[in-house]
Amino acid sequence: MRSQTKISTLATLMIVVIATFIPEITFSQTASVLVPEGSFHSVLPEIKGEPIEVGSFYMDQTAVTNEQYVKFLKENPEWRRSEIPSIFTNNGYLREWKSDLDPDYEKLGENRPVTRVSWYAANAYCSEQGGRLPTLNEWEYSAQLLDIEDEAEMNRFSSNLISWYSGIDVKNLQEVGTTGIETIYGVQDQFGLVMEWVEDYKPIIADELSLDCGTVGRMQTLNSIYSYAASIRYITRMSFNPKITTGMVGFRCAYDSVESSSEIENGDTL
Amino acid sequence: MKKGIIITLFFIGMWSLNTLAQHAHHNHKQQEMKAGEIHPEHSVYHMSAEFTDHREAPIKLADFKGETVIVVMFYGNCTEVCPILIRDSWRLYSAVDETHRSQVNVLAISFDTENDSPKVLKDYAEYEQLNIPGWYFITGKHTDIKMLATMLGVKYQQTSDGHFAHSNLVTVLDGEGKIATRVEGLNQPMEEAAAVIEAMLTNF
Fold it and tell me: Which of A10, A76, B91, B119 would you call most buried, defined as having the most Cβ atoms within 10 angstroms of its Cβ?
């Protein structure tokens, strides 16, 4: 009897241990990975040069695809193109789709990222998956976690980025997960596929930050391979509003990490 | 062509940076953020999310269809500015003729979803002596609160010390959930907004 209890306790313990150390968790549609806490240097001016701290969170490995978005629309008719109230989007919402639930896969592909979705729609999608959009800092922090070995590779990466940002070919997007760009924690395609919505896409330049004319110049000269791409993103995002829909903007979702938040519990009980 | 788009975006961005910089400078002391753009021709009642009030009752925005609503967004741990915002809402509410007041609802919605549970909000309402009929202190899912705030043009962002930088905004919704008027800033005169409410009530 006693040894049986012991064994089952052990088994439970092992399951707990295994569960704790498997970083990959599937929240409904997309596989997500744990991004541990850390800090990064933003291209925006920092408070006394301190890096920005980011707590741990889960993030989808890849951007949301057309096929996944169709599933969401099947269950949430109010977000279909013919139903969506105009407070949530401009006219371009899913503009290239054949009909409400048919993206025209031949042209747009099942596994290509869904684009032409407004911030409201992206926010609703992630909410429905039990998550949320990543914050700007979470997204940017994760993007800087690439493992680039040597200077030659760094230079190659940097020049690829420049050509990509100067011409995202919205008509011929690649499938998600095919850029070969992956962070050390397994988040894919943060560069090279589409730009992505974040929760606070317009960074709030409150009293902690003072922007001046030299700021944009400074962004460019930060000694980092990421600074060019990051400054283009910051600047582009600032021109967004929550209703815009463009062919070069998709999204992925993030999830609070279990230990760091009461928010999930809160959400569930509400 | 695409290069052109990128360049255009770049310049729009530069312009935004400049504008933001001016705001940042201007608002340096108050930690106040300018209210965002809104679309007054559209109803916020399109939002179907369920919220919870300080009486632990579920609440949807569309529950208030056909009635007049004053909305203010705040958070409980904000002890300096938010009590003023709540008092501003009370000033607007009490500027409405007493015989009509029962047709006016006040939604005080917290953006601190982590700390402001219904229980905390109840204590807050009692402390402010506003646990009264027609007043609802509301919490909800993080994503829903963010969406509602965006619709109302209320900007907020958590700062590293756990507080929030936020816009100070009192919004009036008409019977269809459209934004009838809004008052930006603290301690503003409420006569105009009260007149808007009175006009709506007498039209019902």
Answer: B91
Task: Name chain A contacts of B33, Cβ cutoff 8 Å.
Answer: 204, 206
CB contact under 8 A, B12 and A267: no
Distance of CA B20 to the CA centre of its chain: 21
DSSP E strand boundaries for A83-206: 195-196
Q: Which residues of chain A fall short of a pLDDT of 50?
A: 1-2, 16-23, 26, 206-213, 260-270
Alpha carbon of B104 to those of A48, A229, A236, A239, B54: distances in Å? 48, 50, 42, 37, 18
Query: pLDDT tens digits for A120-157?
Result: 999 999 999 999 999 999 999 999 998 887 888 888 88
Report d(CA B44, CA B58) in Å as an integer.
18
Contact at CB, A166 and B3, closer than 8 angstroms: yes
* ipTM for the complex shown: 0.77
Shortest distance between the Cα of B78 and any Cα of chain A, in A, equals 17
| Residue B18, pLDDT above cutoff 70 | no
CB contact under 8 A, B142 and A120: no
Interface of B with A in 16-45 (CB under 8 A): 16-18, 20-21, 23-25, 27-29, 31, 33, 37, 39, 42-44
C-alpha–C-alpha distance, residues A161 and A176, integer Å: 17
The Cα B162–Cα A259 span in angstroms is 17
From residue A67, alpha-carbon distances to A104, A248, B96 in Å are 10, 17, 52
Query: Does residue B16 carry a pLDDT above 50?
Result: no
Q: Are B143 and A87 in contact (CB < 8 Å)?
A: no
